[in-house]
Model the fold of this input.
Amino acid sequence: MPARLCAEHILLIACMTASIGPEFVSPMLEDLAEKLNQEMTERHGKLLNNIVSMICYLYALKVVSCNLIFDIIRTLLKSFTESDLEVLLYIFKSVGLDIRKDDPQALKDIVQIVNETGAKIKEKSSRFTWFVETLTAVKNNNVNKIPNYDKSDITEIQKAYKAAVKQAPNNLQVTLADLLDAKTKGRWWVVGAAWTGLQETRKVKKVEFDTKLLALAKKNHMNTEVRRNVFCVLMSSEDYEHCFEKMLKLNIKDKQEREIIYVTVLCALKCKTFNPYYTNVIKKFCEHSKNYQITTQFSIWDRLKDLKSLNSTKTRNFYFAFIILDYI
Done:
């Protein structure tokens, strides 16, 4: 597939994902992961190159994280054939410096694996030598020593993406294993997605919390299991990103998703002083899915109607809602 054609298709997919949510791109990622896994056992021309190229473009547009790229690199290093070297060269020449920036430790681990594998190879091909030179240049952040370095196609679609999307969502922290097991273990990265079969995935709903937290939840009238779980996650998380990840794993579905916003707003209003933690939690969910933006708007409108009945503490904290509006 021509690079230009591939880039334009991925640009459209990235824009649609930013507008609709991760549920739009998820089926495509799963399909790409399955095809990549099949290609590792039986090659069909340049299909593997095209798959990796598409995933690299998705990473460049921050649809997926470097976790998926590193998983692909590790998979290719297991067989480490001449065909694999060709694909690895493409990855490091196109997004190598970006994955180095995102996770330098993972890159160091890759370099170590390559060095150990290289030591076992008696006759090194020219392509292997070229790959090692490229990898070393990436590791040292030396653009000038990367052979035939050209990111013009990626830079071009990144500019087009920024022009089309005012506020890009957070990238999906999915791994290759997550995508390959999605049909059996479920899709934790899609809010409200169905989970099938396995008992361990069903246990996600039955989260155990400290008795003190449960008592506090009861005191604050969290009278349903979903509200209790959301409240306990809010109170027990280290920061808003940790809270976001734990919320996704609660496997809250469909209309119950609105309880996350409801409980977060309630907790924010009850604080003695304004706490930006709750603002960041809601902002994170609004960036994750458009559904939460609508829910947040309705929640704020409801509070505006009740503004006169709010006590002084809640009124003082209410401006937190208007801060959220800036992100919607």
